[in-house]
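A quick aside before the break. I want you to see a complete sequence-to-structure record at least once, exactly as it would be stored in a machine-readable document. Don't worry about memorizing anything.
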Amino acid sequence: MTLNPTVEAVTARIIERSRGSRGRYLELVAREADKGLNRHNLACSNLAHAFAAAEGDKPAIRAGKAFNIGIVTAYNDMLSAHQPYGRYPEQMKIFAREVGATAQVAGGVPAMCDGVTQGQSSMELSLFSRDTIALSTAVALSHAMYDGVAMLGICDKIVPGLLIGALRFGHLPTVLIPAGPMPSGLPNKEKQRIRQLFVEGKVGQEELLDAESASYHSPGTCTFYGTANSNQMMMEMMGLHVPNAAFAHPGTKLRQQLTRAAVHRLTEIGHGSNDFRPIGHVVDERAIVNAVVGLLATGGSTNHALHLPAIARAAGILLDWEDMDQLSGAVPLIANVYPAGQADVNQFHEAGGMAFTIRELLGAGLVHGDILTVAGETLGDYAAEPGLDGDALVWTPAPEQSRDESILRPVSAPFRADGGMRLVKGNLGRGTFKTSAVDPSRWTIEAPARVFEDQAEVNAAFKAGELDRDVVVVVRFQGPRANGMPELHKLTPPLGVLQDKGFKVALVTDGRMSGASGKVPAAIHMSPEALGGGPLARVRDGDRIRLCAVNGTIDVLMNHAEFMAREPAQPPVEADGTGRELFALFRQAAGTAESGASPILEAAGL
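That is the input. The structure line, written in tokens, reads:
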């Protein structure tokens, strides 16, 4: 199939824009690979320290002939998605021995749950936990003991952080190993309904907790299509999983066999093999474009408007929101998963999931089929569904038709003609608008502004009835340099209530929403942020704001000279507590939202 001309043009533009930085990155990968297996250069004391606790694997590691896998794990048993990882390392060591290899836990990385921290002061650590994870990954891999890397991570900032860290060790083959979603619980739309009833005072806290507990009820990833499950989709689109590993349930024989296959495969693609596939070569410009296309085709998380540019930069690739916006215009929305629809990721998977999605996108020429993946010859090998034949893992071709066209459709009959993540720009800056979750009748909102400086103020005004009108809610000083760019997901229920009452409502903020960004129109990630005099710092109550996803515009409707002559509002006093003061250096060094909002990439000049 001929490549779609927009996909081809955007890819060519990214390649040209990245020529210098990508060239320098590939030179780094080549230099590191040419050093060979670094542990052979370690002194005896270094090596003795490294295998002192290796128990049964000590002779093999000492001899230096076995492929040694470094496991970087984000395990903790508070985060439901990562609880299954507790037993993975011991299983993976057994799987490695089956093919004459060894494995060691190279290090652990933090893994916070945005579901726990939503609306709390600790949410101000969330985005920068990604950069902390990247640094922790680099520390883990710095011991020069490993021929390949197995990464155990799923959730919001964790996969991007693992990738950023691993890409700076781009000479090592790397496989990401998921653990799978929890079984379906209370339908997501019902959970949303109960939340709105709670903010209206129509149900109590006990009923709300019952609903939340029925939604998030067991080990595994949350079942809505937020950032965690968007991560898993992207790993398939980039060829960093074994095929279709994303959504098999934890604790099943199939899940165990997928993990086993990943360990075995990793040993086949190392330095010195006939099939060397280092992550620095797997993640190229085409793979990044595939990730964007997958995000758009499935209605994935807005958080990846930040994470994908950051991941790309770690590999010397320069991706911006113009690229994503142009791709959105060419890529149809073929999945209808909550928050865009009623279904959860289990139902998406049952309808054909990633195998059908990849087959459709390849058939329409919307993705690069010729990327280098960790498994198979082309991305076409990922258009297959895993299953068991006895104990043996087998893949069968993706279904030619969706098993449920209310959830997953062919490219020829999409839910919407575009990918549903638009760039909006104007005299208030540049931001992201996720149209795929918003009814088209609400893509254009014009109303007076009401300005706030945190989400608690918004909720207080809502409870006081001050927002019962057409309103554009502006929440500023929420950018990466102001307070770490927390998610403002707690605003979704009250704004949804206002919208359901018939008011024209929109949110404009330099902060983030959630991977579950919902039905209320929102311009998020506004850049430049208010801190430092960005346009949002000049907005006042009553200013008329027009937000239009159709035309891709966002403007305050007043004389520009008069607007710019205003004195910018002063930011709130920087808060401490909950460890926020420890991240002051990250806030000071953070880049713009469009460049990924990463302090470590900015400081490194990447």
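Two observations worth writing down. The chain has a mean pLDDT of 94. The chain has 24 helices and 14 strands. We'll return to this after the break.
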